[in-house]
Design a protein that fits this description.
Largest sheet: 8 strands, parallel, barrel
Radius of gyration: 21 Å
Shape: globular
Structural class: alpha/beta
Bound molecules: 1-deoxynojirimycin
Length: about 450
């Protein structure tokens, strides 16, 4: 099969401020929720191998990193603004040093002809927000809109692709509920409370809509969407109707709680039965009233999930292992995720058919390899042929999706460089650029060279 890509396809790579920026207490930055919890001994294990205080120090190395991106012909770079850097102490506190820093960084990207795609919120909630109840407090909607307006006003002339939020399953929901099972959440404030989890989900959806509306009102003319971790949920047994029903409900729980409101102005049916008890009153009406159409949906795709029927809970689903595990030659490299490129086609097709977004951008896709435990400052596999194989297989699915009429407009590998990973520290290498954490030396991997040639051949 040959590839087919339009000439203006967005070929990119991504990262988030919190995972590469470092400089946690420089430039007038305030505390993020992670800066706070990483310093509490009882939560230190989530921040293994050092806190994300320095990471790859992109804050000080951005020119060098952007030079490498440009040398490799990258068309676009996706990053987030650090909310606690821009608003360190409260909703009305704007840090001019942060605005200047991001303006310099964006100017440098534009000088090198790299299109910036910026997320407003990718995991690093300001600690002042969390202390006021985070997204369980309806005032969150106002705080988020204010922050969004500050960013649009400061960077709107340079940034034409915006996302309101990245993977709120983790950064919002998982503060109160383990999204991949029952139990306490794995994000600050590490609580276990379904009412808070679902309330925070609802308030984040409202905040997203207000930020989209504000962007339109300010008239910058770019595109705005949201980034969700979207992957197919396959039934354990394809011949058991109840498993098919259960897998759909699991999908609606995991992805539908964002996709429904953001793209259709309505929560899926499972919210009217199993979850209504945890939602604020009139939640369906509030969403219908606030609904604001967005320009694209971003899909972070890593691997599929599996579910089967159970009578034991009102949800009627439970997670289960991949029935084909081990039998189909799939390979796993990163915390048990199955590498399954076909799943990318399946999810793009499902989003297109069921939710009809105007455009879809694959905002993340990638694979990580573990560092040598004895020498964790040194990166793994500079000659990463395994990653090239991974990228090629997924890009092939994109081509198939475009040929079958699905409006996919871009692809971002995760990650541009080795990152800090929540709960796993700096031990798993995702980067096209390898980082030595002792010397901060940057080395492009073979995969970046391959990607560079691929981009050249397909633009
Ligand atoms: C998705 C998240 O957006 C990103 O922050 C994370 O590092 C990758 N997945 C890999 O787990």
């Amino acid at each position: 099969m040959s590839y087919y890509f339009p000439k203006d396809f967005l070929w990119g790579s991504a990262c988030s401020a919190y995972q590469i920026e470092g400089a946690w207490n420089e430039g007038g930055k305030g505390m993020s929720c992670h800066d706070h919890y990483a310093r509490l001994p009882e939560y230190a294990h989530y921040y293994e191998m050092g806190r994300p205080d320095s990471c790859s120090d992109f804050y000080h190395h951005y020119r060098e990193d952007i030079d490498i991106m440009a040398e490799h012909g990258l068309k676009t770079f996706r990053l987030s603004f650090a909310w606690p850097r821009i608003c360190p102490n409260g909703p009305d506190d704007v840090n001019q040093e942060a605005i200047d820093y991001y303006n310099d960084m964006l100017n440098y990207l534009l000088e090198k002809n790299i299109v910036p795609f910026m997320d407003l919120y990718h995991w690093d909630l300001p600690q002042w927000v969390l202390e006021r109840g985070g997204a369980t407090n309806y005032e969150f909607v106002e705080w988020f809109e204010k922050y969004a307006r500050v960013c649009y006003a400061a960077f709107g002339d340079k940034v034409k692709y915006w996302s309101t939020v990245n993977e709120p399953n983790f950064s919002i929901f998982s503060g109160y509920y383990a999204v991949n099972g029952d139990g306490a959440g794995s994000f600050p404030p590490f609580e276990q409370d379904r009412t808070k989890a679902f309330t925070a989900c609802h308030i984040m959806n409202l905040a997203h809509m207000r930020a989209v509306k504000a962007y339109r009102e300010m008239g910058f003319g770019g595109k705005i969407g949201a980034v969700i971790d979207l992957f197919p949920m396959y039934p354990y047994s394809l011949s058991d109707e109840r498993d098919i029903y259960a897998a759909d409900r699991r999908f609606d729980f995991y992805a539908g709680k964002w996709l429904g409101p953001m793209l259709l102005g309505k929560y899926p049916e499972i919210f009217d039965d199993a979850y209504a008890q945890y939602m604020p009153e009139n939640f369906q009406q509030e969403i219908a009233d606030a609904y604001e159409e967005m320009d694209f949906i971003g899909d972070n795709y890593y691997g599929p999930g599996y579910a089967r029927y159970t009578d034991a809970t009102p949800e009627k689903f439970e997670l289960c292992p991949d029935p084909e595990a081990g039998a189909n030659g799939s390979w796993q490299e990163f915390v048990g995720m199955k590498v399954y490129p076909e799943g990318l086609y399946d999810i793009l097709n499902l989003i297109h058919k069921k939710y009809h977004p105007k455009e879809i951008i694959v905002t993340e896709n990638g694979v990580a390899f573990r560092r040598d435990e004895a020498n964790p400052a040194v990166p793994t596999e500079i000659d990463d042929t395994r990653r090239i194989k991974y990228m090629r297989a997924h890009i092939m699915m994109l081509s198939r999706a475009i040929e079958s009429g699905i409006p996919v407009k871009g692809y971002y590998t995760w990650a541009i460089e080795d990152t800090y990973e929540h709960g796993l520290g700096c031990n798993y290498d995702f980067g096209l650029i390898a980082i030595n954490y002792d010397t901060m030396e940057r080395t492009p991997r073979s995969s970046f060279k391959w990607y560079s040639e691929f981009i050249k051949a397909n633009t």
